[in-house]
Amino acid sequence: MDYLYLFASALTAIAVLFLPGSAITWQLPLSWTSRTALAAPVSVVIVFVAAESAARLGVSWSPLPVLAVTLLFVAVTALAMLPVRLRRRRASERAVQDADGGHRASSRSRGATRVLRRHDPAVPVALAIAAVVTTWTFCLLMGTPVEISQTYDNIFHMNAIRWIENTGSASAWNVGSLTIKDHPPSYYPSAWHQIASLPVIMFSAPIWLAQNALMFVVSGIVWPLGLLAIAKDVLGLRRVGLLATGMVAGMFMGFPYGPGVFGILLPFLLAMTLMPALVAIVALAVRISTGTNVHPLVAVPLAALAAAAVAVAHPQGVHAGFLLLVPMIAWTVVHHLIGRRWGWAVFSAVALALAGTLAWWVWTALRPPAASAAVWKADSTPLQALRQIFALGFPDVRQEILLAGLTLVCLVIAAVAHRGRFSFLVVSFAAAAWVFYVALAVNEQPLRYDVTGPFYSDQWRMAAIPLVVALPAIGLAAEVIAEKWASPRIVLVGLVVVGALSSMSWASERVVEIAHNQWRPGRLVSDDEKVLMRSLPAYVPEDAVIATNALNGSSLAYAIGDRQVLNYTVSFSAPREQHLLNAKLDDAQEDPKVCDAMHDLGVDYALDFGPDEIGEGSATYTGLNEISETGAAEVVHQVGDAKLLRMKPCRGTDGRVR
Description:
Number of helices: 27
Number of strands: 5
Shape: globular
Structural class: mainly alpha
Helix content: 55-70%
Number of domains: 2
Radius of gyration: 27 Å
């Protein structure tokens, strides 16, 4: 049954991520690849607008608000494109009426459109390869596709989805209120949760399966589609380059697998899978492409929508975007000046000034307020850091030289190919690599904070950024090699061999070990504990509150068992009574103040999953661990060592038994 839910959730994710946006992008003069790749970021914006609008109008969250906002976007796009269609129709009619050169004029008027609509069958083949490789690799790393991520952040992500379902609001401010009980709600980037909540609302899919399905879809479809948009429409690659791009989309561990293993960094994963589509449309807007021309009046609004999608997915995606785009636009200005395309040089220079100014403000304003908040430390030598950067792998794994050599060689080829036209790939890679290098190997302050502070100096986040431009560069190099030095078959087989050899290396074994440790049952939630939580509706009334310890996984009773819990997340702001219960609930029989707090907060049950915890903070929950041994509660259901307890009556400060 779990696999059926997983499949249905994946189909729902595909529909939500592509149907709304496609209704917009397929009205525009774009290639098939760009239309499809840009559908996902446009859909994310539509979902976000729908969630916020529904919350403010008092409409419960469901696919209906998404449909309503989609229709609104479709109508606005149709009105905006109406003058363009009228001009094309008139130009076509005039060309037909021109007896002398009608055929030639008509051909010229429609030539650009034919270029935009031409479709290379290598694109869906490359996409299929990427989807299969990425999904298969994720399943290998997870152990099974229906498992729960045993990570610190997953406690919040799963409970946030249940919070959306129970409150009927998917607003980013409502999701932010999950961690705050005694202050006004704050914004939390919740595009991930808005999308993942829909299969839960529509057909009661288990939350972890809805999350896993969305992870597979964004990693196996959205991510490679964006890379293929860069490869085909920006770089102008043909069959060998496109197939190579699809093959390497899931070859390197740094992304998309890193955020799916460590953390778990699901909103950041969504933001970065949208990044290649943003890079592609910005490149088309500033005319660094090889002939696929998109009018700025089309490209600029699309770029704004793609940037907005990245921003609402995760704010750090904005930092990553500027890190890639500012160097690219700067190189474009130089390229246009060399080619004496003065108009486009001015346009690109204006774009550079705007992007550079915004980047400076974002980099300095939207980051932790002090260097102490960027807690991650450098732990690599300079040589190890360089090897890590080019290998594009997990930060905590010593990388094999094979993948590092492949990336380095391909970047060199990309830098000189086509007379350096696409050196922006290398320039953007260098900028992202520099930030990653500082995270890996530089501890000196304030340099470390100034360069890596916006990412909390977290190496796992910065490891993902260089891949956005490195992978299309590998596709470009593959095509150049096939044109000049080797047959296409040898090039593609060579990539397969490199991928196979790297998968058998010590580094890959270490990657699998790290991943299994993050997904293997027991680190956060054991199989027995999951079974007990899934059975909670049979034992606990809907209006009851269960005392839980977020650090030992029992707070996932909310997401898995659909019952209210005392602590929804690991880090939270709450009233004094809640902290009192966390520290002393096991003293409810002896301490009247604890009894009062238990009554005021409606705590009738507790979960005892033992003292083993994830992360730090064991002192916080001293009143909840092993509560079944203190006499404050009695066991009503048990699976293995996992216990559900009912709190016993106690005497409050007024002397009454509660």
